[in-house]
Amino acid sequence: MHEEEPKLRRIEQASGDLDPARASLGDANSIIVRAVSDEPPERSGRPSSRAAGVGWGLAAIAAGVFFGLGLFTFAYGDGAAYLQDDPSGCANCHVMQEHHDAWQKSSHARVATCNDCHLRHDFLGKWLTKADNGFFHSLAFTTGAFPDPIRIKPRNRRVAQDACLGCHAQHVYAVLPAVEGDEALLCAHCHGDVGHAQR
Description:
The protein is mostly helical.
């Protein structure tokens, strides 16, 4: 009986504000459950506003650091040069200087720029390829994680092949595969020094 007395007192105190004339069974049950239970009230699954504020603050700091490093890398690497069509912009990185020099000595130096051969010719494809190459080139040159001499990647080889076929379609039509989807011999297989002489 002694253990029940504090619970009864709590029930009496909790029900002190209850008007018996307007009380329903649900009100009484709610009071009893609150009074008998020693557990704190359940919290919703949402974090507190303070925890949410800290989370947003950390996310903002991380985004600021990421954006700041990207801006620094863009400025340090003269990233604006890559948005233009000037081949000297491609020679910003020292590993590209040899390729730039070889292009200047090639038969294509007077008729095609880096972008003519190494980017897609449609608007969206051009800028997607620029973004893709810009990101991965910046990453490789910043970290030093690239082979020396550099090698063209398969996706960029396809872009260059499509550029060759686009400009020289009337000359190469006869040697293209008869069945769509068949692989053609890469133009650079026989004409490797056309874009970059004496490499």
